[in-house]
Amino acid sequence: MLMTNRLNLPQPIVDAVKAHRYDGPTGQDERYSVTTLIGPPQIAQLVRQHENELVEDVSERIWALMGSAMHEILAKANTNAIVEQRLETRVDGAVVSGAFDRMALIEDSRRKAFVLQDYKFASVWEVIYGTKPERIQQLNLYAWLATCNGYKVDAIENVMLLRDWKMREAKNNHEYPQQQVAVIPQPLAPLEDTEEFVVERIALHRRARAGETVECTDEDRWMKPEQFAVMKTGNKRATKVFNAHNEAFDWATTNMPAGKWEIETRRGEAVRCESYCPVADFCPQRQKEIRG
Ligand code: SF4
Fold first, then answer.
1. 7-32 average pLDDT score
2. pLDDT tier at 99, thresholds 50, 70, 90
3. Distance between CA atoms of 240 and 217, rounded to whole angstroms?
């Protein structure tokens, strides 16, 4: 992958980003990192096929760099935790590996439990609206991997460092996260269920490797549905937003002053395809959608 520096960021940042590029399994061997395994097979396959043509800008890696910085701090501070290790195991003929780069397995004497924590920089919205499902899958896969490598895991949790947290908002709104760090316990799935999930994911990735098109799901594409906003005439903010036009219409006719409202259609979008997917230019599914 070619790295650019379009914003002319200082050279030490460029060097740091290059030095902290992903160090997980790449290439044609049947090895999967946990992140790759839970991710869409189509992305993984297109990355393999177009690795030398992909371009990424240093500015897009800043939060990943912050994650690496956090890992360095954790590795120095936490003497009782497993950090900075790549664990792996073989399942169904493939190797699955995971790096405890932003993870810690700690012995919590208060709870008498071994707790696997995943440290992440995240938005406050993720605490308000709920953790993304892939965070929970990722934690469970790490717990499974740790267990396969002889560690005991009793509980899993996300430790979110909220990068857009605002103290003023916390003071004025009790439903807003009250601290800049949120510790969110997650459900620990039975190991057999996680292993079954791993085998299913390997099967999907195998199909993509064999040349079959494994299209991304709406969930993979972070699909935001089309919405209908009831607007008071002249206002820029919606009074209420609905997923169906008829619901918006019915509500507006009952609750809004006659002749003083309108319904604005907000187009749905595949957020990942449009803004975050590194292989969108090479993706047949995306290109077909653009062509209509
Ligand atoms: S562009 Fe969208 S559909 Fe294509 S691989 Fe990326 S996420 Fe999947």
1. 77
2. confident
3. 28
Hey, which CATH number is domain 2-214, 3.40.50.2000, 3.20.20.80, 3.90.320.10, 3.30.70.100? 3.90.320.10
pLDDT of 16 higher than 70: yes
The alpha-helical segments, DSSP class H, found in 151-244 are 167-172, 191-209
Residue 207 pLDDT:
96
Pairwise CA distance, residues 188 & 144, whole Å: 10
SS (H, E, C) 164-189: CCCHHHHHHCCCCCCCCEEEEEECCC
264 touches 229 (CB < 8 A): yes
Give, in order, the Cα–Cα distances in Å from 280 to each of 155, 222, 288: 37, 14, 11
- Sketch the domain layout of the chain as residue ranges: 2-214, 226-267
CB of 116 closer than 6 angstroms to any ligand 1 atom: no
What is the reported pLDDT for 79? 56
Helix, strand, coil share of the chain (percent; to 5): 40, 25, 35
**How many CB atoms neighbour CB 243 within 10 A?**
11
Pocket test for ligand 1, best of 48, 54, 221, 289 (most atoms within 8 A of CB): 221
Question: What pTM does this model have?
Answer: 0.82
Tell whether the model's pLDDT for residue 144 goes beyond 90. yes
Mutate to test the pocket of ligand 1, among 205, 222, 269, 286 (most ligand atoms within 8 A of CB): 286
Quote the ligand 1 centre to 125 CA distance (angstroms): 24
In the DSSP assignment, the letter for residue 13 is H
